[in-house]
Amino acid sequence: MAPKTTQQVAPRRHQYEFLGPPGAAAISFGLPILLYSFAFACNDISGCPAPSLLHPKTLDLEVLKREVGWPKDGIRGLLSLEATGWTLAYYLWSALLYRLLPGTETEGTKLANGGRLKYKFNAFASSMFTLAICAAGTFARGAEFPLWTFISDNYLQILTANILIAYALATFVYIRSFSVKPGNPEFRELAAGGVTGNMLYDWFIGRELNPRVTLPLIGEIDIKEFMEIRPGLLGWILFNCANVAKQYRLYGSVTDSIVFVTIIQAFYVLDGQFMEPAILTTIDITTDGFGLMLAFGDLVWVPFLYSTQTRYLSVHPQTLGPVGLAAVGAVLLAGYAIFRLSNSQKNAFRTNPNDPAVVHLKYLETKAGTRLLVDGWWGVARHINYLGDWIQAWPYSLPTGMAGYQILSAGTLAEGAVKMLDGREVVPGEARGWGIIFTYFYVLYFGVLLVHRDRRDDEKCSRKYGGDWEKYKRIVRWRIVPYVY
């Protein structure tokens, strides 16, 4: 039943983020170039970085093309109909599992139009079902399981396919958002930040808040929630597994470092999918429209950038040993404890303030009727959970060490070289340290992302709570890192 109010379209708010249209353009068309650059510059042909990149004054373009594996037919070689077809089949598979597997249903937060959307949650079951099939295939075929070899052999073409899908999806929801009408019974509404009137910016940031589509035989899908929690996150795990298999094919064994990174990143993904209902209170769902920013982030940035460490380790294996594993494991546990305990405390307080675990905590009562915790974890910093999340990012990169390697031809007999099964030798050489650009980029990016999220949240809460928010900030002084930021 449609709500009595006719307020469906979000008010216009010409407050740009990401430096407005120029920033949106730079991100929309610059990040794909960055990911291609990472894929070529850190490779399994010549090194990480490619040797010519270490000597820019004498760089020869034709030599560089050979070193990075530039396709023989040029840019056209970045696209493959076969890879695109299988990528689309992967999305269809994810949608079928969403439809066929059992799941729980719940309502989202209250919308500005007064309605609540219903969501079905079974991402965790879908991923486990898919991974079980992959495990069976690996048991039967080993590292030669076709999925793993296909990913390795068509990495660039799969990247291209996902970029095109993200662009197409962002364009589809942008055009479709103009059909949102006041008083519609589907509770469709526009995102406040996505109706600036600038076509490029609105396409990037997202006009419609919760775009949905009904597919034959599958039914209704909430595009934003589906893309946020399913294909990209599972793809991250699958890329990591393909990289483990690749290391085995190259060396005949698997090192503890790549196994460690693969396991902890899989745990991170599956933990998030297991707690899937928690996504309904995130800023991505409650505030942001769905445009290229989220489409590209979910479908391209996450699976391809976040798997950089295992991609690196597949070619340059590192052995941590018991002491090394214990060290990076301790960092991981510290970050996870801060992240999970702080979020659990907040969720418990929101769900039942009289819970014995949180009833003693001090809070600030706002005029909006909301209670803001100023005690426990949330008395330490306003986003102490972000600190835990960032600490968790470091164990992804630390196993790569002082990253960087060169690949030498068979028979070089370089000192300290690690030999591949085909005879090629891998040594740090003059590339040592330069690989950090690739393997530690995630840590830097994630830190910047969390700071940006914190500032967006601060702006949102300032509008919502007014003077109460300023009072809250005087009580809880630190944003993310106590006594630092």
From TrEMBL:
It is a multi-pass membrane protein. It is found in: Membrane. GO terms for biological process: ergosterol biosynthetic process. It comes from the Eukaryota. The chain crosses the membrane at residues 83-101, 121-143, 155-175, 250-270, 290-308, 320-339, 431-451. InterPro entries: ERG24_DHCR-like, Sterol_reductase_CS. One of its GO terms (cellular component) is endoplasmic reticulum membrane. The keyword Oxidoreductase applies. This is Delta(14)-sterol reductase. It comes from Canariomyces notabilis.
